[in-house]
Amino acid sequence: MNPDLDLTLERVIRAPRDAVWSAWTDPSRLEQWWVPAPTACRVDRLDVRSGGAFVTRMSEDGARFVPQIDATFLVVDERERIVFTNAIDSAWRPAVPAPVAMTAEITLADHPDGTRYRVLVRHGDPAARALHAELGFADGWGTVTGQLAGVVESRAVR
């Protein structure tokens, strides 16, 4: 973690790590939490393996969907870690993503109350980090992490 370049978020999710992993790797479950509600998400491609595609679209009216992310998974460690970047698109072409290029690392670890969920988003320079923070990293990633928790925690108590 480099505080000049990175942004982080951490939370305990009150559900087993398997449930959190499934919410990340099952397209129908990812669609339930990946973008802040009430915006809707569609998963076009979710190939959760190193080199696999991560492509989603989003819609604010539920009818017209626009590109949201076109990224590549760099590292996938089953039930422990997912690393993806939008600096390389799903066809392995260099990309210039708007508004900011990033590499995101999601780590999952067992916790006495469920799963310790950590997000580390790396940027190429301090200006990109500052832009991402200004655009609402904490609110955006915090909201979707809360939605993820809501999805898996509601299933964990059934």
Automatic annotation (TrEMBL):
Gene3D superfamilies: 3.30.530.20. It comes from the Bacteria. Coiled coil: none annotated. InterPro entries: ASHA1/2-like_C, START-like_dom_sf. Residues 14-153 form the Activator of Hsp90 ATPase homologue 1/2-like C-terminal domain. Pfam families: AHSA1. Belongs to the AHA1 family. This is Polyketide cyclase. It comes from Pseudonocardia broussonetiae.
